[in-house]
Design brief:
Elements: H1 16-24, H2 35-40, E1 46-55, E2 62-67, E3 74-79, H3 81-114, H4 122-155, H5 158-174, E4 180-183, H6 187-190, E5 197-198, H7 206-214, E6 219-222, E7 237-240, H8 247-255, E8 265-282, E9 288-296, H9 298-306, E10 316-319
Parallel strand pairs: 1-8, 1-10, 4-6, 4-7, 5-6, 7-8
Antiparallel strand pairs: 2-3, 8-9
Helix pairs in contact: 3-4
Length: 323
């Protein structure tokens, strides 16, 4: 029997699902107030973003198994992180090129058929274009599988674990008052980085959060389980070890470190792996030459996506060595 003339809803994050619900209810978004605006206004503590660049390992310690096409026997060889990622990146780009060429051929065929007026019926045109559409669907599945394979590889890098451990050690040894959260996308990854971890596979031990708040432990590894709602005391350092570009996840994880006093500083470290690839190009005389070029992995694009609503223009950069 309750009645009301106006209803005010307050929420921390408007994701796509919440936006759809509000639109269905006819509730407009009247006002937005970002975390960074609250920081600029002195309501929340400041954040220093630090981009930690590191290079994939060149040690040939990854065993790759394959089936010999001639003999049918199972064989294997060892490859480095760098060379493995270079291969995965090239294979991914090959599929993109194939999709582009298929799309161009389809467009050309359709233009030629339609330019001839009533010579071809719509059914005949669609029948001619169907093989291109089928090819697109197959290539799109291959592209998704390739993207997943590349992402899974980046989520489990040994070099990333070593850099994260070095960075964490440096943070904790710098000041006995420092506390740190380390966010990873894989439980097996974070379990090798931090002594104390909090995720679904180990039952999310509440005592670890209590111990972090009390200061009896100073670092906690997390696999997205603390994204929303967790109230932590004194966390002034966050390491983002692996990620896939979610804006909402980044906002929520950043929020774990803006519970300090307004004059204190949160340092937010984002790890970005790079690799080296051979690039062939022409010199000034037109001769083909091969150079070794340092390139960012897909993680850089993911970082740009997840930080799109943050100002990283004043972010500092660190270069760490994994080996």
């Amino acid at each position: 029997n309750n009645t009301y003339d106006q209803l005010l809803l307050i929420t921390a994050t408007i994701n796509d699902k919440k936006r759809e619900v509000l639109e269905d209810l006819g509730i407009p978004i009247a006002f937005r107030y970002s975390t960074q605006k609250a920081q600029a206004d002195g309501i929340l503590n400041q954040t220093q973003f630090i981009i930690v660049e590191y290079e994939l390992s060149n040690k040939k310690d990854i065993e790759v198994s394959y089936k010999d096409k001639k003999t049918g026997q199972q064989k294997s060889f060892f490859q480095s992180e760098n060379d493995m990622y270079d291969y995965l990146e090239k294979e991914h780009k090959k599929i993109i090129i194939q999709m582009s060429e298929n799309g161009k051929e389809k467009w050309n065929v359709e233009q030629i058929m339609r330019s001839q007026g009533a010579v071809y019926s719509e059914a005949e045109i669609q029948a001619k274009l169907k093989p291109y559409e089928d090819t697109f669907k197959k290539l799109n599945k291959k592209l998704q599988a390739s993207a997943n394979k590349r992402a899974n590889f980046l989520m489990t890098l040994g070099s990333s674990r070593r850099v994260a451990r070095k960075l964490l050690d440096d943070i904790l040894s710098e000041d006995p008052a420092n506390k740190c959260l380390v966010f990873s996308k894989r439980t097996e990854q974070i379990d090798q980085i931090c002594k104390w971890t909090y995720h679904t596979k180990n039952g999310k031990p509440d005592e670890y959060i209590e111990n972090l708040n009390k200061g009896t432990i100073r670092a906690l590894g997390v696999c997205d389980a603390l994204n929303r709602g967790a109230n932590l005391n004194g966390v002034n350092n966050i390491i983002k070890e692996t990620y896939v570009g979610s804006i909402v996840d980044f906002q929520q994880q950043h929020g774990r470190g803006v519970r300090l006093e307004y004059w204190e500083l949160l340092r937010f470290f984002i790890m970005v792996p790079y690799y080296k690839a051979k690039v062939t190009k022409k010199d000034a005389q037109g001769n083909l030459i091969t150079e070794i070029v340092r390139k960012p992995t897909q993680a850089l694009e993911w970082m740009n996506n997840m930080t799109a609503e943050f100002d990283l223009s004043n972010a500092t950069r660190l270069l760490y060595k994994a080996d």
